[in-house]
């Protein structure tokens, strides 16, 4: 398990990298659409399984 100290250190590094421009947050339309598609398939599968039982 990751210690709280290590989690805080990672968060601080991430924030600093964003501020320094080393990392950029980008909106990834393809990934978002894939997550939505997978969620839809999961819900449909769950509904079908509920109908069977």
Can you tell me about this structure?
By secondary structure, the chain is mostly helical. It has one domain (4-52). 77% of the residues lie in helices and 0% in strands. It is built from 2 helices and no strands. The protein has helices at 4-20, 29-52. The chain is elongated.
Sequence-ordered SSE layout with sheet pairings:
Blueprint: H1 4-20, H2 29-52
Structural class: mainly alpha
Mean pLDDT: 93
What is the string of helix and strand elements?
Answer: HH
Count every beta strand, where a strand is a DSSP E run of 2 or more residues.
0
β-strand amount: under 5%
Unreliable residue stretches: none
Give Rg in angstroms. 19 Å
SS summary, helix count: 2
Shape: elongated
In which range does the helix fraction lie? Answer: over 70%
Number of domains: 1
Largest sheet: none
- Distance from first to last alpha carbon: 38 Å
Question: What labels would you give this structure?
Answer:
53 residues; mainly alpha; 0% strand
């Amino acid at each position: 398990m990751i210690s709280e100290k290590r989690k805080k250190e990672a968060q601080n590094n991430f924030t600093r990298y964003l501020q320094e421009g080393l990392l950029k947050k980008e909106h990834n339309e393809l990934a978002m659409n894939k997550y939505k598609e997978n969620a839809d398939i999961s819900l449909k599968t769950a509904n079908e399984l509920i109908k069977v039982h």
